[in-house]
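For the sake of transparency, this paper describes our internal protein records without simplification. The record that follows is passed on verbatim for readers who wish to inspect the format:
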Amino acid sequence: MALLSMRNIRKSFAGTPANDDVSLEVDAGEIHALLGENGAGKTTLMNILYGIYAADSGVVAWKGAELGPHEPREAIERGIGMVHQHFMLVPTLSVSKNITLGLKSEGHPFPNRRRLDRIILDISRGYGLDLDPSAKVSSLSVGEQQRVEIMKLLYRRAELLILDEPTAVLTPVESESLFGILRRIREEGRSVILITHRIPEVLSVADRITVLRDGKLVATMRAGGTSAEELSRLMIGRELERVQRSAREETRRAGGNAQAPGLRLDGVDLIQHGNAKLRKINLEIPPGEILGIAGVDGNGQRELAECILGLRRPSSGSILFAGIRVDDLGVARRKRLGLAFVPDDRHRDALLLEMDLSDNYLLETLDLPAFSRCGIVSRRKVRLATEAAIAAYGIRTTGPAAQARLLSGGNQQKLILARGLAREPAVIVASQPTRGLDIGAAEFVRGRLLESRSRGSSILLISADLDEVLALSDRIAVMYRGSLCEPMENCPDIDMTRIGLLMAGQRSPGEA
C-alpha cells in the first residue's frame, strides 16, 4: 500500500487547467522527485495535497484512507510537511518562534523558550544549517529563510517532507550533507517529495521520478532507468540548447575602453548594529564582462547588491559607474545612469502581484521618453511595449492585463528581465537570477545575460548555484562573511578545490 496516492487529479483556474488528470504515488521510505517546467502544475498538485487548494476532481489517499477537503493544519497533523517556493514565515517573529508556531510545546501556553532554543540550535548544528534561534526572520536572507522552513519539518518529524528547491542556497558539500539526511530519513521509513530543477541531484538521490509538462503527467520512472538527457527532453518537450559563454572580446562598446571599469567598488564597508556586513570590498568589472560571486547565501551577497543599487549606504568606501561616484545618489538616479537590478526575491523586491503586467512593466520604465512626456504616461505605448516584451521573452500569459500573481515563477522572472533590459543598461546586478526556475527558463535568462555582456554591459552575477557561476562568469570571486577574495580567471582548469575551501571559509594548503 502506497503512503500517498493521488489519482486523476484535475484543477483549473479561470478555465485554464493547472492539473489535467494527474496521478502520483509515493511509497513509505521513498525519495520521489517531481520534475517539470515552471507552470507545469507541480506546485498546484502539492498545494492540493497540503490542503491549500481543493481538487476539482480526483482522489487523494493517505495511508490508504481517502482524504476529503482538508486544511494545511490537518495535513501537518497527519505528518505531511511542505516547504513552499515562497516561504510561509512571520517576519516579525524569531526563528525559534516560527519553527514552533502552532505547536503546543511543553509548558504551553508559557513554554520554556530557552529550552526550545537549545533543542532547535542542536538540530540546526547537527544538520549544518547554521541558524540563530533568536534572530528575527525579517533580518534573514532568502537562503537563511529557506533553512528555517526546512528546520520546521525536521523539528516536527514529518512523515512526508515536500521540499521545493532545497539545495538552491547550499554549496555542493552542504547539498551532499542534506542528501545524506534525506537518505537517513528514507531509511527510517519516512518519505520525501523532492522538487528540483537540478537533474544530476535527482539522479543521485531519488528512487523514482515523476515528470509533469503543461499540467499533464508525462512519465513516472525509476531513477536508475533514465538519463539527464531524457529527463531534460521530457520536461521541456524538446532538445535543450545550452547557452555557451564565448571568450571575452577585446573591443567593448563602440569607442569604449576595455580597461575602464563600468562598475567599481573601492574599500566598501558596511557596519550595521555593530556587525560588519561587508569588509573592504574592492572589485572592478569592465564593460563586456561578467564577474561571478560564489558562496553560500547569507554571507553578505544581499548587502553588496543593495549597496550598489542604493538601498543601503556604505559605512565607508566608494561606488562608481563608468568613473562617476554614485555614493550619494538614490536608486532612481543610479538607474538613470544605466543600472539594472535582478533581485533574489522577485515578490518582495520586484513585482506588485495584484497589478497587471503593463503596470509592473511601467514600474522601472516610467521616466523613459518612449512612454511619458511631461509626466503624462501613454497607456497605449506601455501596453504595446508590454505586448512586445511578452512576445520577445516568451512569457506565458493571457496578455498585458493579466495580474502578475497569475504568472509562474519563470514567467515572472522573464518580465523582470525584460523590464530591466529595456534601458539597455551599462551595469547589471543579477542576484540569484535563476533561483527556482526550471531548466528551460533558466537557460533563457542566462542567454539574455550573455547577450547583454556581448553588448558591453558590466554584469555582477551573484549566485549560490556554482554551476551557473562557472557557466557564465569571466572571472569568479568567493564571498564569505562579508569579505571577497581576489577574483580568479574562469578557465577550464580552474581550481575547484580552492573555490570549495573559500566557500567554507578556509584556504588552500600553503595559501597565506
Summary: The CA atoms of residues 99 and 151 lie 7 Å apart. The domain at 4-236 is CATH 3.40.50.300 (Rossmann fold). The radius of gyration is 23 Å. Confidence is low (pLDDT under 50) at residues 250-259.
